[in-house]
Structure formats: structure tokens, C-alpha cells
TrEMBL record:
GO molecular function, one term: nuclease activity
Family: Belongs to the HARBI1 family.
Name of protein: DDE Tnp4 domain-containing protein
UniProt subcellular location: Nucleus
Record key words, sorted: Hydrolase, Metal-binding, Nuclease, Nucleus
Domain DDE Tnp4: from-to ranges: 174-332
Keyword set includes Signal: no
Pfam families (alphabetical): DDE_Tnp_4
Length: 335
């Protein structure tokens, strides 16, 4: 067995220390701001295209998928939540540009890397912008535009289903939609769904005008719609009867009071307040009244599928695998 002298041990310690310092230098950021991003004020997508969009309402709508007045109404509502103070080192990104970046992320479905090149912003900066803007919209606008309905609001929804879709006593159509994600590390099969992809689930209730009444986001992709509904805040509130649901009322042409109901597909359980179609079977043929009921229910229920279709058509991000941690995908989906 060989032994090192004190001198040799000292030399080894010095070499190891120098190697550790060299490795730590390599891990440091090479740039405070990349040279490409320093040209944001003159070459960034938002700065170069803004003037042209402001002069053309049609082009503005094509670019942002919303009219100009709506864009600035949203901006006014969340401005104070996403505005930062300028420092002596650099000028902050304006709330207007942050909202523009976020909308383009949703509309195009582009990666943060692609948006980084076009807007002349750092990739990590764009990631933070998207998350901050989504959280601001959820906190400021969701309580206004998706509040818990009052009894009068439920009655208005029921009138809509009766007049437009010929389904009286219906106060909402319910369904779930898978939002595809990249499988998180060490998640096993939690997010693996029956479509052989990884996802979280967006459970939604929609009114007769394709507007979202309530949403629940973040359930594992492996879970069924019925199971997600039963464990959701909305499902539990329905069981406890704490949602201001109107009192029972007779169906047209009858005197027998019937409860108000939601309509769903075969994945949901049958309840006094939740209707589903008669199951299709190879061994039993449906009677004419049962087929007529299924047709009427399907006609009323399709509004929720149409609402999902509009959402996915408007924002291309939902047609791709979102490369974010599920907790951030939850904020993006609620947005």
C-alpha cells in the first residue's frame, strides 16, 4: 500500500479545487442579455408589427383572434398584476407586450424557443410571462366571467336549453376533454390515458350558447370522466345541493314536478340531477321512446363538445403536447 506525502496531498487538493472552480464557471450564464435580444426594440415581432396592427382592425383580429377593444379591456383588468418597475440596468417588458406574447403562444402553439427568436426575449422569460399572465387572468377575470351561477342565472340557462335545444329542465351539458402534455418525470402511468397519450383532464359544464359555466382542471389522464366528476368540487357541491339550483318544475304539458338536470354521455353516472343516454347494446334493441330520448339528450349535450371544438380551433396550443409541468398546464388551461 502506497502513502502520499503531505506535499503530494496539497498538490492534489489544489488541482481538485481549481477543477471545481472551472466547472462552476461553465455553469454560469454566458450572457446577461443575449446580443440578439438587445435588438428587441427595433427587431422584436411586437415592436415591428404593432403600428400596422393598430391601423388595421381586421389584421389585428387575425393576429390576436380577438377585436382590439377586447384586447385592451383584458389588458386594463390585469395591468397592475403583471406590470414591473424599470431598473437602472434595463427597461422592463410592458404589460401590453406580455399579453401579446401570451396570446401568440396560445394561438400559434409555438414553442418557447420559437417565440424567443421572434419576440427577441429569453426563453425562460417567455415561460414566466405566459404563467404570470395566465394567473393574472384567472385571478382577475375568472370570478367575473365564470362566477357561481345564481338561481336566476340557472333559470335563464334552462330557458335557453328549452327554447334552443328542445330539452326542458336542463341547466347544463357536461363533458371532459384531454389536454395533452409531455409525460412528467417519474409519473408512471398517472397521466397515461385510453388514447395512448399523456394528459390532464378539463372537465367543463356549458350553457346553451357554448359558454363555460364551470370548469375543473388538473385530474390525471388515466381517470374516467365519471370518476373526475365525482371527486370534483362541482360534483361534491351538487351532492350537497349548495349550487342554488332552482326548485323542481313540471315539464311542458304535465303537472308532475321534475328536477333540473345536467346532461352527459355514457361515462357519467345516472343521478336525479344528471341524465345520460340509454346504453347501446347488441342484445337489446332500444324502443322508439328510448331512441327519441337519446336523440334529444344528444342534441342538448353536443353544445359542450362544440364548445371544446371552438376552444381547440381558436387556440392551437391545445392541439399539441404542452411542454410544461402539469401544475402550470392547469393555469394555462383555465386561462
Amino acid at each position: 500500500m502506497s502513502w502520499f506525502t503531505i506535499r503530494e496531498l496539497a498538490i492534489i487538493a489544489i488541482v481538485l479545487d481549481e477543477e471545481e472552480k472551472e466547472n462552476s464557471k461553465k455553469k454560469r450564464k454566458r450572457y446577461w442579455v443575449h446580443n440578439m435580444n438587445k435588438a428587441r426594440s427595433t427587431e422584436g415581432e411586437f415592436r415591428t408589427i404593432k403600428k400596422h396592427l393598430m391601423d388595421d382592425e381586421e389584421k389585428f383580429y387575425i393576429y390576436f383572434h380577438m377585436p382590439k377593444f377586447l384586447f385592451y379591456n383584458i389588458l386594463q383588468s390585469i395591468d397592475e398584476c403583471i406590470r414591473k418597475k424599470n431598473t437602472t440596468f434595463r427597461e422592463t417588458i410592458s404589460p401590453e407586450e406580455k399579453l401579446a406574447v401570451t396570446l401568440r403562444y396560445f394561438i400559434t402553439g409555438s414553442t418557447f424557443t420559437n417565440l424567443s427568436s421572434s419576440f427577441r426575449l429569453g426563453e425562460s422569460t417567455i415561460r414566466l410571462i405566459v404563467i404570470d399572465v395566465c394567473n393574472a387572468i384567472i385571478n382577475k377575470l375568472m370570478p367575473i366571467h365564470i362566477p357561481q351561477p345564481t338561481t336566476a342565472a340557472w333559470q335563464g340557462i334552462e330557458e335557453g336549453f328549452k327554447n334552443k335545444w328542445n330539452f326542458p329542465n336542463c341547466i347544463g351539458a357536461i363533458d371532459g376533454k384531454h389536454v395533452n402534455i409531455i409525460a412528467p418525470p417519474n409519473s408512471g402511468s398517472l397521466f397515461f390515458n385510453y388514447k395512448k397519450t399523456f394528459s390532464i383532464v378539463l372537465l367543463a359544464i356549458v350553457d346553451p350558447e357554448y359558454r363555460f359555466i364551470a370548469v375543473d382542471v388538473g385530474a390525471y389522464g388515466k381517470n374516467s370522466d365519471g370518476g373526475i366528476y365525482s371527486s370534483s368540487t362541482f360534483g361534491k357541491a351538487l351532492e350537497r345541493n349548495t349550487l342554488n339550483i332552482p326548485c323542481d318544475k313540471p315539464l311542458p304539458g304535465t303537472n308532475h314536478a321534475m328536477p333540473h338536470v345536467f346532461v352527459g354521455d355514457e361515462a357519467f353516472p345516472l343521478k336525479t340531477y344528471l341524465l345520460r343516454p340509454y346504453p347501446r347494446s347488441n342484445t337489446r334493441r332500444l324502443s322508439d321512446p328510448e331512441r327519441q330520448y337519446n336523440y334529444r339528450l344528444s342534441r342538448a349535450r353536443r353544445v359542450v363538445e362544440n364548445a371544446f371544438g371552438i376552444l381547440y380551433q381558436k387556440f392551437a396550443i391545445y392541439n399539441k403536447n404542452i411542454k410544461l409541468h402539469p401544475k402550470f398546464v392547469k393555469s394555462i388551461t383555465k386561462y
